[in-house]
Amino acid sequence: MRSLEEKARSAYSEQVSLSSDEFVEMMVLDGCFIIEFLLKWNEKEVGYLYGGWGLSVGKSDLFLMENQIPFFIIQELYDLVFGESKHGFFLDLLAKHMKKIDVHTRSRPETISSINTIEVQNLTHLYYNWFVPKQDPKKHIEYSPTIFEKYLSNSSDLELNTTEPPMVIQPVTALKEAGVKFVKKKSPRNLFDITFKDGVLEIPFTLISYNRKRLLLNLVAFEQSNNSGIDKNLTSFVKFMDMLINTPDDVEILERCGIINNMVASADEAAAFFNQISECASLDYDKHYLVPVVKDVTDFCNSPYRQFRSRVVHYYFKHPWTIIHVLYACLLMVIQIIQTLASAKELYEGKKKKQISASSV
After folding, report:
1. Separation CA 118–CA 74 (nearest Å)
2. What share of the chain is helix, strand, coil (3-state, %, to 5)?
3. Alpha carbon distance 124, 67 (integer Å)
4. How many whole angstroms separate alpha carbon 72 and alpha carbon 120?
C-alpha cells in the first residue's frame, strides 16, 4: 500500500493533510471496510451494518463523493487477500450491489464487463458509468435506436445542429393546455429514453424520494466536476424534468399518468425535487441529447391552433367553476336563440294570418 501512496494522493483534487502513516492507514481501513461490507452483504450475514436501517444507509453511502478512495486501492486490497484470479468475482459483486441501489438499474445484467475499470476513478465514477448507459459502437443494435442512443453514437440521422434551438420547454400544465399528452413509456431502454411523436410525450417511470435525491445530487455533482470529456446526459435529463415540473399541479398530472411516483412529504417538495438537484449544474442548452425533443414539443405548441387552444383551455376550462360558467353562458345563449326564433316564427305566422284574412275579404 505504501508504494501506491503517491498515486493515491494525486487522485484527490485537494492536498490531504495527513502524514504518510495516517494516509496509508486510512486507505487500508476504508478499503477493507468496503470489501467486508460487500462480502457480508452478499452472504446476508446479520449485523448492525448489514441488515435493517444500516444496510439501507450503507449501500448508498458507499457511492457518495465525500466517502471515496481511489478505486485501484480497493482492487489492490482485494487482490492481496483473495488473489487476482478472483478479480472477476469482485467486479460482479459490485454490479450485483449496484443493481439494488436504484429502481432504474435493477434490470441491468449482473456484470460490469462493459466498463473499463482501469479508467474508473472511484466507486462514484463506477456507479455513474453504470447508471448512465453508454452505447457500444461495435455492438449490433437490432432495434430502432432511441434519440439518446443516436446521440451517444453520433448518428448522422439525428440533427442536433438545429438553428436556434429553444432554450426551455413549458411546464406540464401549459403543455397539457396546448394538447400535449403525457404517457408513461412502456418498455424504455433506460431512464433517459424520452420521446415525442404526434403530440405524445413519452417519459419512463421516475421515482421521487429522499434517497434518490441524494443519489442524483452526487451523480450530477460528479458529472459536473469531471473534466474527462463525458457528456452531461444526466444533467440534461434533470434539467428537462426541472423545466417540466414547476408546481404541485405538474406533479399531480404526471402522477395520474403513472410517470412519477412521489414518495416525499408533499407535492410541493416533489415540485422542487429536480430544481434543487439541478440548480448548481450547468448545461449547454444548444448541445444536449434532449434538444430534438425540446424543439419538437415547442414547434408543436407554437402552431396557431395549439396557441388558440391553450388560451381557451387556460381561461375558460382550467377550473370546474369556470367550465360551469361557460356552459351556463352557452345554455343562456341557446335559450336566447330559441326564444328569438320562436318570436320570429310567431311574428311571421301572425303576418301570414293577416294576409290570408285580408285576401278573403
Report:
1. 12
2. 60, 5, 35
3. 9
4. 8
Give the whole-angstrom CA distance, residue 118 versus residue 87: 13
pLDDT 10s digits, 289-338: 898 999 899 888 887 766 666 556 655 556 665 666 667 677 888 888 88
Using the structure block, give the residue that is written with the C-alpha cell 463525458: 230
Q: Quick check: 305 and 312 in contact, CB under 8 A?
A: no
Residue 196: φ, ψ to 5°: -135, 125
Across 123-273, where does the E strand assignment appear? 181-184, 195-197, 200-203, 206-208, 260-262
Q: Is the pLDDT of residue 180 over 70?
A: yes
By the 8 A CB rule, do 142 and 270 touch?
Answer: no
Q: Which of 101, 125, 122 is nearest to 214 (CA)?
A: 101
CB neighbour class for 274 (10 Å; exposed up to 12, middle 13-18, buried from 19) = buried
Quick: pLDDT tens for 240-275: 999 999 999 999 999 999 999 999 989 999 999 999
Annotate 92-151 with DSSP letters as a single string. Answer: HHHHHHHHTT-GGGTTS-S--TTS-GGG--SHHHHHHHHHS----TTSPP-SPPPHHHHH
